[in-house]
Fold each of these.
Amino acid sequence: MRKRAPSLKPVVLIGQHGLTDNVQQEIANALLHHELIKIRINTRDREYLKQVTAAICEFHQAELIQHIGHTIVIYKANPDK
């Protein structure tokens, strides 16, 4: 899966409003359709970045595949595929 990660474009951008319910829903939809997604988190606070990454993985029961800079790649298998 790491080999596929560089070719992905971020499908979700987390901006100044942070990790809202709407953002969580977009992540859920993206995981359902793509399984492997890239998320860009716009922040300069490294601790906040770690907290958001952990919250996303825990909430969606997804696996963190890669974390480079402000971009994370997560995976969750779709049981219907």
Amino acid sequence: MQAVAELFVRDEGQLGFYQAELARLTDSGWSPTIPPLYVTVTNFRLILVPQTRKPYPPASIPSNYITRVWHISDAHRDGIALSLRTGHELFMFTHWQQSVGLERDLKSMLIMPVSHRFSHTLAQRDISRLIRFVERI
């Protein structure tokens, strides 16, 4: 796996690193996806990298595309949900201890001023790739 820090732009810094599973709500409850993800929160964006042997390019979601972050849970897991400016929602479950930190770091990222040097736009293909991946499961 390529070190995520190698993708950072000038003045970008890591707020937190987590492991999570994307999930979707079905008639029988939350259904996690495979593979799990490495989740890196920076002061500029959210970076998602699948935990696979075959390397995949990371999905990058700039902070200005995230409109809302909130806590989710079921009887066995804790996690967070994200609303995106594109109208999509992402649901991620983490270990109990990590969900509080992930939610805190994401909310911190959202209130930080975005540097004028960071002009990364949301690659629709990144979101589409995540959606196609979840739909195949």
